[in-house]
TrEMBL record:
Organism: Sinocyclocheilus rhinocerous
One GO CC annotation: dendrite
Function: E3 ubiquitin ligase that plays essential roles in neuronal functions such as regulation of neuronal plasticity, learning, and memory. In addition to its neuronal functions, participates in other biological processes such as innate immunity or cell cycle regulation. Component of the cytoskeleton-associated recycling or transport complex in neurons, polyubiquitinates gamma-actin, thus regulating neuronal plasticity, learning, and memory. Ubiquitinates postsynaptic scaffold GKAP, a neuronal substrate involved in synaptic remodeling and thereby modulates dendritic spine morphology.
NHL repeats: from-to residues: 271-312, 316-359, 360-401, 405-448, 452-495, 496-539
Entry protein name: Tripartite motif-containing protein 3
InterPro entries associated with the record: 6-blade_b-propeller_TolB-like, Filamin/ABP280_repeat-like, Filamin/ABP280_rpt, Ig-like_fold, Ig_E-set, NHL_repeat, TRIM-NHL_E3_ligases, TRIM2/3_C
Claim: Transmembrane is one of the keywords in the record: no
GO function terms (MF aspect): ubiquitin protein ligase activity; zinc ion binding
Biased composition (Gly residues): 232-241
Gene (name only): trim3a
Pfam families: Filamin, NHL
Assembly with partners or alone: Forms homooligomers. Interacts with TRIM2; this interaction reduces TRIM2 activity. Associates with myosin-Vb (MYO5B) and alpha-actinin-4 (ACTN4). Component of the CART complex, at least composed of ACTN4, HGS/HRS, MYO5B and TRIM3. Interacts with ZFYVE28/LST2. Interacts with KIF21B.
């Protein structure tokens, strides 16, 4: 009788969970049907086009040209569901003791909607570690639509591999709320590959390139998010570093037979710099600007100087003397170049803007007595100088001679308020684009300072920010934003809708600051935490 009851309960239990299994099957079947239909459409379109080209007269081909073009364009725009919309997780937890006691609880089937390609890993431990110190990263699981999964029990696996083939053990803690902590301790310095897999599929961005350094070589880093937000990209200067020139990467990882330092392909063309005080070395660089004649100008903040390079990364000029007198620099942050080649520098600690000739000779200072802590600076189409005052939480607009045109903004969270504005850019409509650091958003105003719209929110998803910093606008009006806390660069259209990322996974950013478009159409970014600037390919 006992076994009869147990058998009956098992059959009843399976029937109760049949609907859940059927729903999973329906999701995957719908995805398969979509792919098969897409395949059929492609084959049909190819067949139609081939017949027209092979058997039709020129006149007939011209008659169906528009139809063929529209069908090809429709197929090119169609997004096919290439990644699985479900995983293969199905488990059964059997409570035999409970069955013996009351035959009331046989167990439950465990499954989740988690998939790898939408789930994300966060934390500096993805890219940086100190030998001998325990480091953790967080994995946040999501479903096929990018929505957070709030249950645990996912099959998560992590592996850290060294160049010599050694594997470092990792500890995984299931928080039972859809998030997981991965802990590890590296025993040697060097470069490692950090892979994180969900159901055998990599999470977004995996594998990560991880660099471990000795404790004595570890850069100063903030203790918590609040401290980081107060002093982004902090860390002092340091001597004794080997001078580093621009390292150019081939346009394709397959275009040379030389062994690659980095097997992951991204958009990086080259990087310049390491921590130091010499030419081509930096300490907490902040602003970056470009010129129409092929120059890249960098504000080397902690070294109190400006450095100039060619578009291919060759050093050209260095100027600046530390001090608090006119013509000296105390903490240069933002930088811009006008049509005459004059270099405008926002000096955060001196509380003014300094103007230098193209060869670094001091010409004038503006904003003294008005500015409290200028950060970013830009020029509009009328020749006005626009600066974001980080401390005063407002934006100033000056004429080139220093006369104040207007200012707008105050501290707060509303449309015309800021919480630590960082950088500014001007779009092709002469509108002012401002990154609002603590409000985790980008705000757009007309040339008179009237609010137009804003975009972004706090988070790590597409179109979200963790303290945005640098900003630039391309010729099509697309807005490029350095996402400081998430160490990435995002691209938006002119209305603020998310478009894409610039791929930086092979040589990860660490607290990016200013960014600018070079005269040959690439993106230059000040990688503050890595004490270098990088130039990436960018397709407008």
């Amino acid at each position: 009788e006992y076994f009869y009851c147990a058998s009956f309960l098992i059959r009843l239990y399976i029937c109760c969970n049949y609907n859940q299994l059927l729903m999973l099957l329906q999701v995957l079947q719908a995805q398969l049907n979509a792919l098969l239909q897409g395949k059929e459409n492609i084959q049909s379109n190819c067949s139609f086009t081939e017949q027209a080209l092979n058997h039709g007269s020129p006149t007939e081909v011209l008659l169906v040209q528009k139809q063929m073009g529209e069908r090809m364009s429709a197929l090119a725009r169609h997004a096919f569901p290439e990644q699985p919309h479900e995983n293969g997780h199905l488990d059964c937890q059997v409570e035999t003791e409970g069955l013996r006691r009351s035959i009331q609880n046989l167990g439950v089937l465990l499954t989740t909607s988690t998939v790898g390609h939408t789930s994300v890993a966060t934390g500096e431990g993805l890219r940086h570690a100190v030998v001998g110190q325990n480091t953790t990263v967080t994995v946040t699981t999501k479903d096929k639509d990018g929505e957070l999964v709030k249950t645990g029990n996912a099959a998560l696996r992590a592996q850290i591999s060294g160049a010599d083939g050694t594997v470092t053990e990792t500890d995984i803690t299931d928080n039972k709320n859809g998030t997981y902590e991965i802990g590890y301790t590296l025993r040697s310095e060097g470069e490692f590959s950090f892979s994180i897999l969900l159901y055998g599929q990599p999470v977004r961005g995996s594998p990560f390139r991880l660099r471990a350094v000795k404790p004595c070589d570890a850069p100063q880093s903030p203790d918590d998010v609040k401290r980081r937000v107060k002093s982004p990209g902090g860390g002092g200067g340091g001597g004794g570093h080997v001078r580093q020139k621009a390292v150019r990467r081939p346009s394709s990882m397959y275009s040379t037979t030389k062994k690659k330092e980095n097997p992951i392909e991204d958009e990086l063309i080259y990087r310049v710099g390491t921590r130091g005080r010499e030419r081509g070395e930096f300490s907490n660089l902040q602003g970056i600007s470009t010129t129409s004649n092929g120059r890249i100008v960098v504000a080397d903040s902690n070294n109190q100087c400006i450095q100039v390079f060619s578009n291919d990364g060759q050093f050209k000029l260095k100027f600046g003397v530390r001090g608090r007198s006119p013509g000296q620099l105390q903490r240069p942050t933002g930088i811009a170049v006008d049509l005459n080649g004059d270099i405008i520098v926002a000096d955060y600690d001196n509380k003014w803007l300094s103007i230098f000739s193209p060869d670094g000779k001091f010409k004038n200072k503006i904003g003294a007595g008005r500015l409290m802590g200028p950060k970013g600076v830009a020029l509009d189409k009328n020749g006005h100088i626009i600066t974001a005052d980080n401390k005063a939480c407002c934006v100033f607009i000056f004429q080139s001679n220093g006369k104040l045109v207007t200012k707008f903004g105050a501290k707060g969270t509303s449309e015309r308020q800021f919480a630590g504005p960082h950088f500014v850019a001007i779009n092709n409509k002469n509108e002012i684009v401002v990154t609002d650091f603590h409000n985790h958003s980008v705000k757009v105003y007309n040339a008179d300072g009237e609010f137009l719209f804003k975009f972004g929110s706090h988070g790590e998803g597409n179109g979200q920010f963790n303290a945005p910093t640098g900003v630039a606008v391309d010729g099509n009006g697309n807005i490029i934003v350095a996402d400081w806390g998430n160490s990435r660069i995002q691209v938006f259209d002119s209305s603020g809708s998310f478009l894409s990322y610039i791929n930086t996974t092979a040589d990860p950013l660490y607290g990016p600051q200013g960014l600018s478009l070079t005269s040959d159409g690439h993106v230059a970014v000040a990688d503050s935490g890595n004490h270098c600037f990088k130039v990436y390919r960018y397709l407008q």
